[in-house]
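Our consortium's second objective concerns turning raw sequence data into structural hypotheses that experimental partners can test. To show how far this objective has progressed, the report includes one record in full. It was chosen at random from the queue rather than selected for favorable results. The single chain below, 578 residues long, was entered without modification.
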Amino acid sequence: MSNPNDATDAAMAGMMQFGQAMVKNFFELAGKNSDALRKSAPSTASLPLPEAGRLAELQQQYARRHAELWSSMMRYKPGEERDPVVSPPRGDRRFSAPEWRESPIFDYVRQAYLLNAEFLQEAAEAVPMADGRLKDRLQFVTRQYVDAMAPSNFAATNPEFIKTAIETKGESITAGIRNLIGDLEKGAISMTDDSAFEVGRNLAISPGSVVYENELMQLVQYSPLTEEVHSTPLLIVPPCINKYYIMDLQPNNSLVRFIVENGHTVFLVSWKNASPNEAHFGWDDYLEKGPITALGVVRDITGVKKPNVLGFCVGGTLLTSSLAVLRGRGEDPVNSLTLMTTLLDFDDAGELGCLIDETSVAAREATIGKGGLLPGREIASVFSSLRANDLIWQYVVGNYLKGNKPPAFDLLYWNSDPTNLPGPFLAWYLRNMYLENNLRVPGRLEMLGVKVDLGKVDVPAYLLATREDHIVPWQSAYLVRGLLGGETRFVLGASGHIAGAINPASKNKRNYWVSDSQATTPEEWLETAEDRPGSWWLDWIEWLTSRSGKQVAARGRLGSKQYEPIEPAPGRYVKERA
């Protein structure tokens, strides 16, 4: 009869070999892709390894820690509590189930993987590269590989899969296959229960009307919820890369409703989900038919010459560009500007920046740059890859290995409702913003026949960034202060690009940082900042209200004789699926 310890030793030896193979395969993969990396950055002659001394140090540490892990496992006694050799990073929930620790084999599997992942990421960090964007790309590729190779992603190395299959007598496997087939038919991984939500039924339900529309946008005016309102209205320009209803999810987490409940008249641009009919539109079209036209309609309806305006993400880039065009024409278009997680200086464009190079932009220009569409699903896939563990592998494991259905979550429903983009718009945006960073240089870019200068946008500005934003690094958002010509208030929210921005005052969770410092660098500003509990919405609404004029009686009807309501909010455009 065989010795169980021999079987355990053999299993662990096999897992150790698997870990070594994972590291070896990565370096082979990196070698095969080095030509592609070099082509994307011609100034880099080769893809070097870390310096010999640093590489030897990493290898010695890697071998030492694996030996320590092996020794720890050999001393294992059933039921004994022991400290791990390596622990997952903060917030990593992939190995939080007790099954990973209860079995010495699976405990070894998870820790060996974490050591391998740590080594690969440190090796990528240690590679000497003068081109920062190329190095960022190498680190991105490393992270993608490391995330994909996690033992939690595979049935044979995931004890949760095995336990669930046994407990359900195989039904979880059957359910997982059904989920996989359903997602293949849908063309996307299910992140939430799609049947739980519907735009206009329980999402985007703040009352209002569409009061104007053109080929690229509808303009929504929201109904007042107070007897009196401030005399200066607010125009919101959300990103055209996503649907607007991230600003108006459900009543308890709707930024739109929060603003209206605080006595403000709100208008909002609802971008059209581009179809072949809109495939020829470019950046200038989005400025002219978007913020510039919307501002004119708001003025005509309300009689207020200088509304307040708010832009979110690329909506903020479009809005600020529009204001620079209007200022270049000699107009004084707005009273104040709010920018939420917006880039105007793209020198450090976050994780998206490392994916954009001359080769990729030229390819877009040659294919869809003169007319065509970038499918929304492709955009969604790129954004999901930036947080693969949270937005891809978590659902692969839950949906397909465990056979679960994801719970209802409004934000993830919105995240799974992407929009198509016209190719000419996208190609111009990628080249002039992400690749060449032209917007920050006064007079370098011409838009609608005007050489734009952001310094001429000299109204008071409220700038919101979020500390864990992987799309708009908060340090880059801070640089907006040096580009605009007016006084600025910079506020830093907790969490990421979406969760930090959509932080309802009704729940008042998380925290934010404020400071009156006009420090040149973001790090200097943060040293002086006060940490306040709760939602930044409360700070912003006070700032906005002080710039919104006197209280007047709320209007009894939406629109005007010239702009009669077309249809109830949220309108047709936001309901169009990619």
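The partners drew two points from this record. The chain is about 45% helix and 10% strand. The domain at 208-344+452-575 is CATH 3.40.50.1820 (Rossmann fold). Both points have been shared with the crystallography group to help prioritize constructs.
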